[in-house]
Design a protein that fits this description.
Number of strands: 30
CATH architecture of the largest domain: 3-Layer(aba) Sandwich
Structural class: alpha/beta
Number of helices: 21
GO biological process, one term: secondary metabolite biosynthetic process
GO molecular function: phosphopantetheine binding
Strand order of the largest sheet: 15-16-17-18-19
CATH class of the largest domain: Alpha Beta
Strand content: 15-25%
InterPro entries: AA_adenyl_dom, AMP-bd_C, AMP-bd_C_sf, AMP-binding_CS, AMP-dep_synth/lig_dom
Shape: globular
Protein name: Amino acid adenylation domain-containing protein
Number of domains: 3
Pfam families: AMP-binding (PF00501), AMP-binding_C (PF13193)
CATH topology of the largest domain: Rossmann fold
Helix content: 25-40%
Oligomer: single chain
Length: 677
């Protein structure tokens, strides 16, 4: 459901006049379809409200022809809309008061003040007349196909704001880094608190690793699983894999064994790159391993080549750079394939947005399982900056602070650490992404760190980074900070019914086009569902359906309004409730399960709450079931199957899950826990 603005008790009105030709056409259509003349106006207004994000009658969302809606009015007879009270069903009423007796009838649309965005209010009457004219001229037109935009709005949305094409070098990631190696060979490239590598050393070490990897027969479109601890060696490994021509599959050895087994089975990498200690934590599998700390070749390893090293296969920008798994709505994780071209464009555009250059330091605190890590490493290495590898952002407290160029973090995580960082952090840019950045937090950051710029970035695993917004000092509003405009070579659309652009200020679903990912590994059906043809770009181009709600504000900046589906975020990490619910439903003592995210008392972030319906109703003496469903045991059950960030912190037992009239789970009626089980 698309949220409407808060509605106030006062009313507003928009007057309109129908020219003689249109008035006659309305009367003729009403007579032809055997409906009241006012009903034609009423249904046309409903169609307009559909495109303005109002909560209209459900049958309109099925995209019927306008003529079918008139037939429904005729069939309902006295129960159909008569033209005087036309409601956005389920919401406040809007009223059309037409005077159809005269040659040029005039009327007005009366509606509660605040029901519509100001941009929609301003041109409501003119928009209504144009929609009415279009529908009356072609009653067979599906309602979603009606264009409600003014020509100036269409130009602004699809030409000025949609995105900008900029020159982008047709390079792969190794070529992008190699260009910097030639420019600053002796400058520091990577450090981890124990060692430091210059650009020349990083290039040489990653070349040696790439040579060993190509001996396994790797090349473009091959896949290498990467499981290494956080150190400078991890950056060498990333670059070495890419230089071999292969893409990398990040693997976190801390994940439960079942999760790791699924990733290895689904992605089927040709090789695992790891070390001796990490290899012990990985599940048994038949995939060859290359240990970076092995003193001798492992059993089954290919022989070392002599005479100049392994021949490097050609690598192109459209080849695979990495395969990264995200939470899946069906309960199964899905792997997102991203190309070199997409990463090169993203890091190049973002590096320019934060003015990253030689000598700066970029904090690398994010797990390689998340694409923020791609920015942290390659935005630095492509501009002459230093990659400062740390265990995680909490390590900065142990260090006593941090000084550098760019720190990338999640709003809720940083908010919890703000007091600890005050006076101990000197960063040129704080970049936020992963969840909504509030204006209040932006103001707190500006007050605590006067010399720091705040950038709010937005993207999905499927698109890498798509937009960015630099928060003006003293200019943050009271709500969420905008996510900005598309980066160069990216495109953004806010679309409504029928993939039609909605007017500025109106909420719709956000689609991202341009340099987006390929799709989902071995999931052609899901790829076709989420990566759809872009009707506003050149033939053959695609756009990604994000599932996020957004709108363009008056300044031409995108505002993120939340999710259009059930997907949630916890500490900036995308979580599909279906995946957690699927695991809980597999517990023998649980009949049904649901998951929600609720604010954590005393904290900015949220936490996962699991609602369970026991398989056997609780009764006196059912001690065994009570023990089996104890929170401690349920957490252990989930922890054996899902990563830490997907483990519920609270469990609530219910007799039944709340259902809506359609028989589906009504998540809005799940009780806010007053305490866990």
């Amino acid at each position: 459901m698309i949220p409407l603005p808060t509605v106030h008790s006062r009313s507003a009105a928009a007057g309109f006049t129908l020219d003689p030709g249109l008035a006659g056409a309305v009367r003729a259509l009403a007579g032809e379809r055997d409906v009241p003349t006012a009903a034609v106006l009423a249904v046309a207004l409903d169609v307009l409200l559909l495109h303005l994000g109002a909560d209209v009658r459900p049958e309109l969302r099925a995209n019927p022809p306008f003529g079918q809606l008139l037939a429904d009015v005729r069939d309902r007879g006295a129960d159909g809309p008569a033209g005087q009270d036309v409601a956005a069903r389920g919401g406040p009423a809007l009223t059309v008061v037409p005077d159809l007796a005269c040659r040029e009838p005039a009327g007005e649309i009366e509606y509660p003040e605040g029901l519509l965005p100001p941009t929609a209010e301003a041109g409501l009457a003119d928009r209504f007349v144009r929609v009415l004219r279009r529908l009356v001229a072609d009653p067979a037109l599906p309602v979603a196909a009606v264009d409600v935009l003014h020509p100036a709005e269409r130009y602004r949305l699809l030409e000025e704001l949609v995105g900008t094409e900029v020159e982008s070098p047709p390079l792969t990631l190794p070529e992008l880094v190699r260009r910097q190696v030639r420019a600053t060979p002796e400058a520091p490239a990577v450090q981890d608190g124990r060692q430091e590598l210059t650009y020349r050393q990083l290039d040489a070490e990653s070349d040696r690793l790439a040579e060993r990897l190509t001996a396994y027969g790797l090349g473009p479109e091959s896949l290498v699983g990467l499981a290494l601890p956080r150190s400078a060696e991890l950056v060498v490994a990333l670059l070495g894999i890419l230089k071999s021509g292969a893409g990398y599959l990040p693997i976190d050895p801390r994940y439960p064994s079942r999760r790791l087994e699924f990733l290895l089975s689904d992605a089927a990498p040709a090789l695992l790159l790891t070390d001796t200690a990490t290899a012990r934590a990985l599940p048994d599998h038949g995939i060859p391993r290359h240990r970076v700390d092995a003193r001798a070749p492992e059993s089954g390893a290919p022989p070392r080549r002599s005479g100049g090293g392994a021949a490097r296969p050609p690598l192109r920008p459209d080849n695979l750079a990495y395969l990264m798994y995200t939470s899946g709505s069906t309960g199964t994780p899905k792997g997102v394939a991203i190309t070199h071209a997409g990463v090169v464009n993203g890091v190049s555009r973002l590096a320019a947005a934060v003015d990253l250059g030689p000598g700066a330091r970029v904090l690398a605190s994010t797990s390689v399982n998340f694409d923020v890590s791609v920015f942290e490493v390659f935005a630095a290495l492509s501009t002459g900056a230093v990659v400062d590898v740390v265990r995680d952002v909490l390590a900065l407290g142990e260090r006593g602070g941090w000084t550098g160029g760019v720190m990338h973090t999640v709003p809720s995580v940083f908010a919890e650490m703000l007091d600890r960082f005050t006076g101990r952090l000197d960063a040129g840019v704080l970049m936020f992404a992963g969840e909504a950045l509030t204006g209040e937090l932006a103001r707190q950051v500006h007050r605590a760190f006067p010399g720091t710029s705040v950038v709010n970035a937005y993207g999905q695993t499927e698109s890498f980074y798509a937009t960015a917004y630099t928060v003006p000092r003293g200019g943050a509003g009271r709500g969420a900070v905008p996510i900005g405009r598309p980066l160069g070579n990216m495109r953004a659309y806010v679309l409504g019914p029928g993939l039609a652009p909605v007017p500025p200020g109106v909420a719709g679903e956000l689609y991202v086009g341009g340099a987006i990912g390929r799709g989902y590994h071995a999931r052609p059906g899901l790829t076709a569902e989420r990566f759809v043809a872009d009707p506003f770009d050149r033939p053959g181009r695609r756009m990604y359906r994000t599932g996020d709600l957004a709108r363009w504000n008056a300044e031409g900046q995108l505002e993120h309004l939340g999710r259009a589906d059930t997907q949630m975020k916890v500490r900036g990490i995308r979580v599909e409730p279906a995946e957690i619910e699927s695991v809980l439903a597999g517990h023998p003592g649980i009949a049904h399960a649901a998951v929600a995210v609720h604010p954590r008392p005393g904290s900015v972030g949220g936490h996962i709450v699991a609602y369970i319906v026991p398989a056997t109703p609780s009764r006196t003496g059912a001690d065994g079931q009570e023990a089996a469903l104890a929170p401690r045991k349920l957490r252990r059950f989930v922890a054996d199957r899902l990563p830490d960030h997907m483990i519920p912190s609270t469990f609530v037992a219910l007799d039944r899950l709340p259902l809506g009239p359609n028989g589906k789970l009504d998540r809005g009626r799940l009780p806010v826990p007053g305490g866990g089980r």
